[in-house]
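Subject: Rhodopsin domain-containing protein

B.,
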Amino acid sequence: MPTSSEQADAAAAAAAAEAAFREFAIEAWTLLAVAILVTVVRTLARVRAVGCAQLRPDDYLVWVGVIFYSAETALAYSVGASARGLANNSMSDQARADLRTDDPEFQLRVTGSKIQVAGWSTYSVLLWSFKASVLTFYIRLTEGLHKGYKQRINAGFGLLAVTWVGVVLTLVLSCRPIHKYWQIHPDPGNACQPAVSSPVIWTFFAMNASTDLYLMSIPIPMLWKAGMKTSRKVVPTVVLGAGLLILVCAMMRSVLILIDPVNGPQLAGAWGVRESFVATITTNLPIIFPLLKRSLKPLFSSIQSLGSSRKQGSTRTRPGFQTIGGGDGSSGGVRYHKRGRVPSVNHLPTKNESEERIIGNAVEMQKMRDTDKEDGT
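Prediction pasted inline below.
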């Protein structure tokens, strides 16, 4: 019979766990709502720029990722709401032997383990959908450039395919038969405890990190090879290199599970949702950044007027290309086009404008260099 002190401690622990779950639920659903809103803004911007008929595969792939992100959030919520944070891990052999199949805790642990397996599955699809969306966007970004960039993009698709198959096979084959993923007694071993499975955790992290680093290695070197001022390369580099934040979240998720197998999975679930949120934002960022800059233009103008008004007109962006901020370097809303087309004064570019060229001058200058090389051969 537990003492009054033990009962009080148990009640306090239950209250703390409930409060932590409420905080997680608020954070998880809020992040999902923001991610969906950002993706809607991106889609509306693309539709206004090119029309529904001209949407490209990356515009659809990002929604595949958002759908599975929604599923992941629902699963992460159900771990606490339906399984009370329990799974088939963190149990002694005696506790496993004593837990009867008709005990409510037994069913909670089985349910929690199944949710963990489903969570890893949705996690793989959503992240790799976002990666595929980014690669497809790079196709538009590098149109007209040296074929070496296309080869790197094609290699990226191959890398995505191989790594995704790798994580799926790891999830399916590291625990056989698969029903051992929710086995309670006897102990199925670490590989069959989905909340803390080392093979699954390390494989997902390695494949995720390698693909993210490769994706960043495509546009950033191209940007820094271009003949632009260093100061003008910083913001595009930050936008295109935001994938590093995904690696930070993935690392936090893995480390928390490994250092604290008891409470780590619940904390890792929170970091998993954050990672998916960051992945959504970074995938959409190159498209929506011009919109953000236009929205903040009054603030930028007031700041720049303090010290840069004397330099206005001294430099000018090459006509027909937009910078990372979506403008062409002029203070007005008019954008000049190639081939003598009439300039547009719309807040969002028309289908004939170069919205996709978010690196702007960097892409144009690199194209000129590639042309010079070909002419010199």
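The chain has two domains: 22-289, 317-376.

T.
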